[in-house]
Amino acid sequence: MSNNLIEVDAINKTYERGGETLVVLDDLSLNVPENDFLALMGPSGSGKSTLLNLIGGLDSPTSGSVRIKGDRLEKMSASALSNWRASNVGFIFQFYNLLPVLTANKNVELPLLLTNLSSSKRKEQVATVLNLVGLDDRGGHKPNELSGGQQQRVAIARALVSDPAILVCDEPTGDLDRETATEILELLQILNRDLGKTILMVTHDPVAADAAKRILYLDKGKLTES
Amino acid sequence: MSFFRQVLAVTMMNLKTILERSGSSIVIIVGIAGSVAVMVSLLAMAEGLNSTIASTGQDDRVIILREGSNSELSSGVGMQEIDIVLNSPGVETIDGNALVSGELFVIVDLKKKGAEGTSNLPLRGVQPMSFKIRPELEIIEGRNFRSGTGEVIVGKGAYDQYEGLEIGNKIKIRDNFWTVVGIFSSDGDVHESEVWADLSVTQSAFRREGSASSISVKLEDKKTFDDLGGYIETYPNLDLKVQRESDFYEDQSSGADLIKYFGLTISIIMAIGAVFAALNTMYSAVSTRLVEIGTLRAIGFNGSSVLLSLMLESMILATIGGLLGALIAFVLFNGMTVSTLAGGSFTQTAFAFAVTGEVVKQGMILALVVGFFGGLLPAFNAARQDITTALRSV
């Protein structure tokens, strides 16, 4: 039995554009052990976001397999994949992707609506994670009433609230100033160190990548380790 | 359970953004309101006319016409034939007098209020028994006409629609001046659109001495219809057709059906336009929320909850539009009295628009159908949208 949480085996991802085949990921294999904090770097178009989407269950490979805790993602139906994402992955996006009409509390509560938890239990968990990200006094605020750093903290709370094993972060500091970015990266390190979350982070920023335990480089759909 | 929570959460999110998208939301509401207002108005017109004509007929009353005639205008019966009916079985009597009345139905030309030309107004020459046959007829102003005189009473529908029918006025009919002495109501039926006068005076004025258009009869009981019908049919050389009054007026209400079909056709054409407005609005609503939909899908909300919630949004907007349309039709038209040519008689029948619950229900069905088809494709596309593409559309 492997100790790897994530096993990506010989995946290819291609797109057909104007009669030509565009290779985004080329026979790529990758293993990620539990509690890893992995940064993916590389030039634009190198395939790092595509790899992240495949591991997060948002996309399917053209060939090869993505196995997470023994589950073969490419074999799952769309509906099964939705359920799998809800309980196994938390997403953190560059532009936070909070729903503007909902308060921070309601945004964080969204993943819990997919569970059978009671309303009071959901509120309890929302309060816990908002406290964890240092925003316990901002729950009633809508996104446009929060700073960029605060919005990203709300997004991290939303990613954490259903206690997934994996956090998938796509340029989580890309829209933040250096000081705020550093705070967010420290928060991710805490989540990795203290809560045991396995984190995969795509970034263009070498400073952000340094916060990870290891860095992988992608170029033209292939991996190179630093 | 969690599926309904998903649908509720996405629907609430959608509805909360409606105000922010008020421009496009108003397009769908106004489009549907317009279609429903037209449909409800025309159906209310048909309903009003239908109800006026249908309320005239009673099962225990009979109208007898010349065989082959479909209306009183084209029918003629001799006074000696009325005498035969007087002695027929199944006819109600009061103090030994049969409730049978010969009636002459003719047309006079009078000017309608607000119109340039004249319109056909029915004049019914009646015998005293006509009032016993129709107890619902009530003089509401003035008095009844006196037999043998050139006096008339006017139905309140005709009074509302035509000029010069005030009590004391004289109206010119066939070179004679007739005096209006009273105004009557008759439970809102077609007789309220008529002028009534004495039969013999009417016969004389219209050179129809010795004949009438129809015979009205009150039956002992609605079950004695066959007794009377069988007697008249088998009577030697009597070429008359016996019909229940209710059946006769139902046949006359074909005009209401025409209005109804016309209304439905216009409404459906407008509704098709409204479907496209709804499609456009919902596509626009979906495109502005693509990232939000993609985010929800990434978190684990499934496509069917997104589809259902967008459909619900479209249906809610359609419901608002439908109610608005029905309200517009109600405020503008409910109870408004107009007149139109009634089937067969070429005369004007006054009736009131009736925005009934049934009419509103049909309008709401139209609104929901528009909402359903207007929301279906955009919702289906949103539910099937590739998540990574949706997330990239920041």
Features:
A: 226 residues; alpha/beta; Rossmann fold; 6-stranded mixed sheet; 4-stranded antiparallel sheet; 7 helices; 10 strands; 29% strand; B: 394 residues; 2 domains; 10-stranded mixed sheet; two-stranded antiparallel sheet; 51% helix; elongated
SSE topology:
The complex is a heterodimer of chains A (226) and B (394).
Chain A (H helix, E strand, L loop, with lengths): L3 E14 L2 E14 L3 E5 L6 H8 L7 E6 L2 E2 L5 H11 E4 L11 H6 L9 H14 L15 H13 L5 E5 L7 H17 L3 E5 L3 H5 L3 E6 L2 E4 L1
Parallel strand pairs in A: 3-8, 3-9, 6-7, 7-8
Antiparallel strand pairs in A: 1-2, 1-4, 4-5, 9-10
Chain B lengths: L1 H15 L5 H33 L6 E6 L10 E2 H8 L6 E2 L2 E2 L1 E12 L6 E9 L2 H5 L4 E5 L8 E5 H6 L8 E4 L2 E10 L9 E4 H7 L5 E2 L1 E5 L6 H10 L5 E5 H8 L1 H35 L1 H10 L3 H31 L3 E5 L6 E5 L4 H28 L2 H6 L2
Parallel strand pairs in B: 6-11, 8-10
Antiparallel strand pairs in B: 1-13, 1-14, 2-12, 3-4, 5-6, 5-13, 7-10, 8-11, 9-10, 15-16
Helix pairs in contact in B: 1-11, 2-9, 2-11, 2-12, 9-12, 11-12
Unreliable residue stretches of chain B: none
CATH architecture annotation of chain A:
3-Layer(aba) Sandwich
How many strand segments of chain A?
10
Rounded to an integer, what's the Rg of chain B over CA atoms? 30 Å
The total number of structural domains of chain A is 1
Assembly state of the chains shown: heterodimer
Average pLDDT for all residues of chain A: 92
What is the helix content of chain B? 40-55%
Strand-pairing-aware structural class of chain A: alpha/beta
The tally of domains of chain B stands at: 2
Largest sheet of chain B: 10 strands, mixed
Task: Sum up the overall morphology of chain A in one term.
Answer: globular
Give the class of chain B from helix and strand content and strand pairing.
Answer: alpha+beta
* Topology-level CATH name of chain A: Rossmann fold
Strand content of chain A: 25-35%
CATH superfamily of chain A: P-loop containing nucleotide triphosphate hydrolases
Runs of chain A in which pLDDT lies below 50 for 5 or more consecutive residues are none
- CATH first level of chain A: Alpha Beta
Provide the residue-averaged pLDDT of chain B.
86
